[in-house]
Automatic annotation (TrEMBL):
Keywords: DNA-binding, Transcription, Transcription regulation. It comes from Nocardia macrotermitis. PROSITE patterns: HTH_TETR_2. This is HTH-type transcriptional regulator BetI. It holds the Pfam family TetR_N.
Length: 208
């Protein structure tokens, strides 16, 4: 890696190397030495950019979450020409879920990794309670992503939610978690799309 890279560029390079390793051997099996070797830098560079493995894992989780957020936010076509009212809201929510799903479907290894980072943090927290922050960071960010989509959809269609957006986003994310985990088991994408239809309809029942 070029010595001319900024610290942020170095960090991004190391995070991507860590993701690649974790996809192959699992989060628990990745060491900072492994990451240094995969990225082609010294171990000192890794520790200069990240205090320890936990700090690196936290940023890895953020990077995976950002990929999902970008899959919805960077496609502006979904938000063009939307109408008003609950039917338009349901269509918009479903279209947003489809964008999210297309990213998930294209990256099964990364989706499995998101579950592994969660279980890694929960298991390790028994010995090191601070590790729980890794899992909480992941869910806080994803809650925010879903909440932002729901608020954007509400504003775009001139509707309002009858329950707090935070409650709705947690529910939506919990359902998506289950849908994706089942898909990783049975690889039934057709069933997923049917389930997303139902989810969009369920979400919209809380709109006025």
């Amino acid at each position: 890696m070029s010595s001319r890279l900024s610290v942020e560029e170095r960090r991004a390079h190391l995070i991507e190397a860590a993701i690649g390793l974790a996809e192959k051997k699992g989060v628990a099996g990745v060491t900072t030495r492994d990451v240094a070797q995969a990225a082609g830098v010294s171990l000192g560079v890794v520790h200069y950019c990240f205090e320890n493995k936990d700090a690196l894992m936290t940023e890895l989780v953020k990077a995976l979450s950002m990929e999902l957020r970008d899959s919805v936010e960077t496609n502006e076509t979904v938000w063009q020409g939307v109408g008003s009212g609950k039917e338009s809201l349901q269509n918009l929510v479903r279209a947003s879920l489809e964008l999210l799903w297309l990213n998930i479907e294209a990256t099964p290894e990364r989706q499995l990794l998101t579950y592994e980072t969660t279980t890694y943090a929960l298991r390790e927290s028994e010995q090191t309670p601070a590790k729980l922050a890794i899992a909480r960071e992941q869910y806080t960010f994803n809650d925010s992503t879903v909440g932002d989509v729901l608020e954007h959809a509400r504003d775009a269609t001139g509707t309002r939610w009858s329950v707090p957006v935070g409650t709705l986003s947690r529910f939506t994310l919990a359902v998506i978690d289950g849908i994706v985990l089942r898909w990783l088991v049975d690889n039934d994408s057709e069933a997923v799309r049917t389930q997303l239809d139902v989810l969009a309809e369920m979400i919209t029942t809380y709109a006025q």
